[in-house]
Model the fold of this input.
Amino acid sequence: MRLIPFMLALGLPAAVLAQAPLRVDINAGLMQPMPIAVPAFAPGNGGNTEAGTTTALGQRAAQVIAADLKSSGLFRPIDPAAYTSAVGLDEVVKPEFPAWRTIAAQALVTGTITANADGGITLACYAYDVFAGSEIARQGFVTTAAGWRRAAHKCADLVYARLTGESGYFDSRIVYVSETGPRTKRIKRLAIMDQDGAGHRFLTSGQNLVLTPRFAPEQQTITYMSFENNRPRVWLYTLGSGRQEAVGQFAAMTFAPRFSPDGQTLVFSMSVGGNADIYRFTLATRQTTRLTTGAGIDTAPSYSPDGSQIVFESDRGGSQQIYVMNADGSNQHRISFGDGRSASPVWSPRGDYIAFTRIGGGRFGIGVMRPDGGGERLLTNGYQDESPTWSPNGRVILFARSDRAGRSGLWSVDVSGLNERRLATPLDASDPAWSPLLP
Amino acid sequence: MPTLPTLPRFTLLAALALALAACAAKPPVALEKPPETARPQAPVADPAPIPVTETAAPAAPALVPGSQADLRDKAGSDTVLFAYDSYELSAEARAVLARHAQWLQQNPGVRVTLEGHCDERGTREYNLALGDRRANSAKNFLASQGVDVARLSTISYGKERPAVDGSDEAAWAQNRRAVTLVTSR
Done:
């Protein structure tokens, strides 16, 4: 899908930044999410598209943007019932700030949706500091009619980025394992959806047991594990074509795959005679390099964002703990020394934290630590919380939570430990992986 | 075809196999665990609820020689159980597997897959590896009893295929297992 952002050129007075800029402090307590108004986007023309009229799309776009901002826990969209007036075309670029002040909105998002001659749409997005009465961001997006949701997510990302100082994460997707049936005969399918749960679809039929899908950085390929033909191996799934292909021709089980940040390489475990070690597989040359050699289970490798290091788990010291090594396998050293066992580490795309699963006291929780092992904090505690994955901006962790009855679902939590919330899925769910921001 | 130059290969000598089975060239993990007898909850204490696989034939007439039902009948069970986070074979597990080996000698055309399984109390990737250790413990024991390794294959299901749907000690004990599954005869 083509989605072309452009700067909206409008001759606004460039004057208004005298006072302190409106800002969400992302690291503060988050106890007071910023009140924000997101009125329906105005129809730029009376056009109709295959996705609906511009009026209808304008309403739905505002709802998508408000839901995105609310889900971050940093914003509190004000109920549209409180709005004193609709926002017509004129008010999109010249809001009635006093009216928005009366409902205590601190920020305002307005916009337009216009039907284009080629059947596509243009979504224009504006954000304002209500109390200063000043514009803080604007951008336009040209896309297909069906792409209106992505354009709305891009608008929400723009607002989030301008108000938090961090990049956004709303225009992104999640691949995960959809689960159904009793635990003894669980049916598992790969499924993909937008970050907010929209656009859900299944990728595999459920005939084969599938586990641990992960995006390639270009997001058109997913690596995962399949038990096809009773040969548990690492596979690749190509999103456009639906093509599925086994990785290499290994005699032993390969599992726990992930891409390198440049997409050229996979890392995964191979278990030979009961000894699991980590291997690097170069996709272009099909060259395999063994990175760990010792006794014990070495698995769950994850690259640092610059590709220079790999974090993984090993029980070489007697119990599952987290280790870091250089990408060539050198300098392997343990970084986790907390209580209990630590497993399934994932390096944040920002590089500042490693998320992991903590097992102890009969429960599983999600935690974070710095790459040197310091600053450990546990963020969640459940019967079984596992398989963390990072939002593209490294602020939110998505994970799988199972209960004692065997039901499972996807949950997210802010890296601060606040804003724990469930992400709805059609069936039970596990093994989530968050994509990078879509281009 | 990728080359994997340094993979360890087990050459199993019968006399050594038991010692090697659980921990070929990897002492630390196995040795740090308490000895089998010191474990508080020995899952093999109660022989009654050993699970049978789904292909269980109705308890009835003529067992087909070399079939799964025949194995279960002659050996008493097709399954051995493990302690939590362990892949060491208990005395009881070795006794069951010895009967599997005997049965395999009597049915020389049979090939089996050793399935390794875990309870739910481990992370997904770790349990895949642990299940592989359990499957290999069983396989290596059978090999130590003289069964040709060409007749033995392994697969790990990690925590993906529990025998019992439950989240208590009784269910977990049944789910930490290796199953000897007849694949051809």
About this structure: Confidence is low (pLDDT under 50) at residues 10-19 of chain A. Chain A touches chain B through 62 residues (CB under 8 Å). Chain A has two domains: 3-164, 173-434. DSSP finds four helices and 33 strands in chain A.
